[in-house]
Write a structure and sequence with these properties.
mainly beta, 7-stranded mixed β-sheet, 4-stranded antiparallel β-sheet, globular
C-alpha cells in the first residue's frame, strides 16, 4: 500500500518560497500510471488542487497556481516536491500530497503551513 508523508517548514514569511517534500513508500513514483499531486485546504475553505507530476515526469498545474508553482521529483529518494513562490497570508493552509492510480487515491496526513511575518 502506498503511503505518503509531507515534510517542510510550518512557518514561512510573506514573499518567500514555500517548499514541501512528499516522501513515498510502498511503491515507486515511476510506477506506470501513478500521478502525484499537491492539494491544499485553507482555513474554512475547500480543497484546492495545485499541480502534479505523472509517473513519466510530466508536470501539470492548476491555472490558479501555475505562475507561482513548480512540482519536481527526486526518483533516487522516491520523493516529489512543491515550490510555491511569493507567498502571502492567503497561502496559509494544510498542504496534502496525494497519489492516484486506477481511480484510487492515497493521501498524506497533511501539514499546516502558516504564512506570517
Amino acid at each position: 500500500q502506498v503511503q505518503l508523508q509531507e515534510s517542510g517548514p510550518g512557518l514561512v514569511k510573506p514573499s518567500q518560497t514555500l517548499s514541501l517534500t512528499c516522501t513515498v513508500t510502498g511503491d515507486s513514483i515511476t510506477t506506470t500510471y501513478y500521478s502525484w499531486h499537491w492539494i491544499r485546504q485553507p482555513p474554512g475553505k475547500e480543497l484546492e488542487w495545485m499541480g502534479g507530476i505523472a509517473y513519466d515526469g510530466t508536470t501539470y498545474y492548476s491555472p490558479s497556481f501555475k505562475s507561482r508553482t513548480s512540482v519536481s521529483r527526486d526518483t533516487s529518494k522516491n520523493q516529489f516536491s512543491l515550490h510555491l513562490t511569493s507567498v502571502n497570508t492567503e497561502d496559509t493552509a494544510v498542504y496534502y500530497c496525494n497519489a492516484r492510480r486506477a481511480n484510487v487515491d492515497y493521501w498524506g496526513k497533511g501539514t499546516l503551513v502558516t504564512v506570517s511575518s
